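Appendix C: a fully annotated inverse folding record. The material below is reproduced so that readers can follow the format used throughout the book. The structure is listed first as tokens, followed by the designed sequence.
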């Protein structure tokens, strides 16, 4: 190859060293920006430690109150079978199906081919059959799952905030 051919070939190819240098500079700038931002965040957190602690405590109290209300709703449902309550809360009752996949696949091959996906069981379709007591195989064990539902915005249902929480 002549020097003219080499020069033309090298001019048409990217300069890998230049591109690597550009990438290195960009990565370095990004690392500096990340470090600067982290320092700023750390400083802000130090200056606002009390505010952050108040926020953490408020969320802890909210989570505890949420857990307590959910437990009370489930307990009340188990005693009364009421699903809806005056404060906009409710319980949702769903069925859970416990079965051995192999037995279910064998049953589905004989009784519900739609629940069979190339030699495996489509559990969602199979459990659709389990919802109907007449179609449900004997080997399926049914249990209830009770879930409490609480509105995100309780202000529409609750008139006041308890005194011990109003300062948080």
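Designed amino acids, in order:
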């Amino acid at each position: 190859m002549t020097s003219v051919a080499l020069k033309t070939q090298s001019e048409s190819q990217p300069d890998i060293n230049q591109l690597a240098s550009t990438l290195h500079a960009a990565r370095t700038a990004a690392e500096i920006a990340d470090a600067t931002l982290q320092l700023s965040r750390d400083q802000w957190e130090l200056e606002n430690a009390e505010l952050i602690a108040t926020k953490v405590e408020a969320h802890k109290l909210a989570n505890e109150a949420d857990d307590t209300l959910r437990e009370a709703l489930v307990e009340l449902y188990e005693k009364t079978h009421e699903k809806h309550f005056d404060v906009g809360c409710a319980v949702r009752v769903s069925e859970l199906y416990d079965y051995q996949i192999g037995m279910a696949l064998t049953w589905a091959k004989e009784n519900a081919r739609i629940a069979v996906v190339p030699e495996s069981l489509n559990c969602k379709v199979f459990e659709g059959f389990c919802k109907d007591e007449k179609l449900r195989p004997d080997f399926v064990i049914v249990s209830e799952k009770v879930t409490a539902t609480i509105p995100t915005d309780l202000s529409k249902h609750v008139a006041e905030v308890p005194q011990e929480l109003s300062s948080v």
